[in-house]
Amino acid sequence: MVKLWSSSVAIGGIYAARIHRLGPDNATLSVHTKRGGAAAKAGHDLELHVTSWEATLDLDAGTAELSADGSSLRVERGTGGMMELGDEDRDNIHKTIDDEVLEKRNITFRSSSLVEDDGRYRVEGELTLAGRTQPLGFDVLVSDDGRITAAATVTQTRWGMKPFSALFGTLKVLDDVEVQLQSR
């Protein structure tokens, strides 16, 4: 179980958290896919939640780190499609991610720089996904009440991953997926 804790500094009488520890107990890490191809109407846009992960955002040290269990992605919802996404569909998606996409490999991110600009932070670093490490940059927003939001676009083929396809390629997951982090 990951517990949220933070150190704080006084800024104009208001305390601002400077070190944030995040995980499934206090934040949501989600992956959003979109469908494409001639048969796109048959498929679903997916929202997957990562159920085993931890992250640290240290604004004092200027670092951000994340590690996630690649076998912990679960379908939260599917939208669109000809029929509603059923339990068997969800199980098949989970199996495909584990066996063909991520192959149960862990996911890590380590920042190389974190630059503040008016409450927003630009994070640059390296993402290791499917056994390959590539640079990745994204923005993080820390609100006045300490809530954290971040989003990054991950292009699967940059990490050597082949986006899922079916029906002889007429139904496919688009190459770009969006990863979002939202603290509670």
Features of this protein?
184 residues, mainly beta, Lipocalin, 11-stranded antiparallel beta sheet, 3-stranded antiparallel beta sheet, 16 strands, 8% helix, elongated, disordered N terminus
Description:
It is a single chain. The protein has 184 residues and is mainly beta. It has one domain: Lipocalin (Beta Barrel), CATH 2.40.128.110. The chain has an 11-stranded antiparallel sheet with strand order 3-7-8-10-11-12-13-16-4-6-9, covered by helices on one side. Strand 10 and strand 11 form a beta hairpin. The longest helix has 15 residues. It is elongated.
Helix/strand layout:
Blueprint: E1 8-11, E2 14-17, E3 19-22, E4 27-33, E5 35-36, E6 45-50, E7 53-58, E8 63-68, E9 73-79, H1 87-101, E10 107-117, E11 120-129, E12 132-142, E13 148-155, E14 165-166, E15 171-173, E16 176-183
Antiparallel strand pairs: 1-2, 3-7, 4-6, 4-16, 5-15, 6-9, 7-8, 8-10, 10-11, 11-12, 12-13, 13-16, 14-15
Order of strands side by side in the largest beta sheet?
A: 3-7-8-10-11-12-13-16-4-6-9
Integer tally of domains: 1
Seen as an oligomer or otherwise, the chain set is single chain
Number of helices: 1
Count of DSSP E strands? 16
Fill in the CATH topology. Answer: Lipocalin
Measured as a percent range, the helix fraction is under 10%
Largest sheet: 11 strands, antiparallel
What fraction of the residues are assigned to beta strands by DSSP? over 45%
